[in-house]
Amino acid sequence: MLSNYQPWHIPGAALQMQWEMKWYKYVKDSMPPHFFTHYNDKKRTPKEIFTEAHSELLKKGGKWLNSTSSSCSVVATLIAAVAFATAATVPGDFNENNGKPNLAHQSAFNLFAVSSLIALCSSVTSLVMFLAILTSRYQEDDFHEELPRKLLFGLTALFVSIAAMLVSFCAGHFFVLRDELKNAALPVYAVTCLPISFFAIAQFSLYFDLAWATFRKVPQRSYKMDF
Q1: How many whole angstroms separate alpha carbon 83 and alpha carbon 76?
Q2: Which residue in 20, 21, 139, 142 has its CB near the most CB atoms, within 10 A?
Q3: Contacts of 183 (CB under 8 A, 6+ apart)
Q4: Backbone angles phi, psi at 75, to 5 degrees
């Protein structure tokens, strides 16, 4: 049964549903196997009681995952579009004689090429993960491991793509600002990175809560018992 008394702090309906599934699996593994096939006085099995008691929480968890994945997929799409355009653009153009980039010997150019490729791959990966969540069935067993891990992996790839995109931006504009405006380069980079950095910082709490709830296997109380 779903109780209002929860000594552990789990934010979000989806993570609460995941925690309830962990409790269910924990109790099921602690009991003899034949116990879960028995009926009670109302001719219902433990699985049927669990499904009925958690139906509302299941709906709330599905809506929360849907809205979160939709918002993050928009950001991942924007980063993928920018990263694709950045990866297809070569700073300094090509050498007409050998076809190689003119700035290939510069360390900033190598940093730009690698970071733009990482941003593109990571953003596409996060977008695929969020689309997989949006097209999920949102069944009870999906909340145990599948959906939280997809969300965690998608957020990880999204944060990596954000960091890589900022690095590629700074490395690409280094060739523009390195001579006349080299003293103003760092303040310009810092101001430009602030909006995206604020988004990443705002999502860190969700990321840590998700990682804690996903990898915590045995339910624990949030207070100490006094004997």
Answers
A1: 10
A2: 20
A3: none
A4: -65, -45
Q: How many Cα atoms occupy the beta-carbon half-sphere of 116 within 13 Å?
A: 23
Q: Consecutive sets of 10 residues in the chain, 227 residues long: mean pLDDT of each?
A: 64 80 82 76 81 85 89 89 80 62 68 86 93 88 86 90 84 67 67 73 79 71 49
Interatomic CA distance for residues 157 and 119, integer angstroms: 9
Gap between the Cα atoms of 161 and 155, Å rounded = 10
* Domain ranges for the chain: 69-91+100-215
DSSP H stretches of helix in 31-106? 46-53, 55-87
Buried b (16+ CB within 10 A) or exposed e, 65-104: beebbeebbebbeebbebbeebbeebbeeeeeeeeebebe
Residue 22: both structure tokens together: 């962990």
pTM: 0.76
Beta-carbon contacts of residue 33 (< 8 Å; ≥ 6 apart): none
| Distance of alpha carbon 184 from alpha carbon 173, whole angstroms | 12
- Six-digit token string for 179: 């001579």
To 5 degrees, how large is the angle CA 140–CA 142–CA 144? 85
10 Å CB burial of residue 60 (0-12, 13-18, 19+) is middle
Burial track 126-159 (b if 16+ CB lie within 10 A, e otherwise): bbebbebbeebebebebbbeebbebbbbbbbbbb
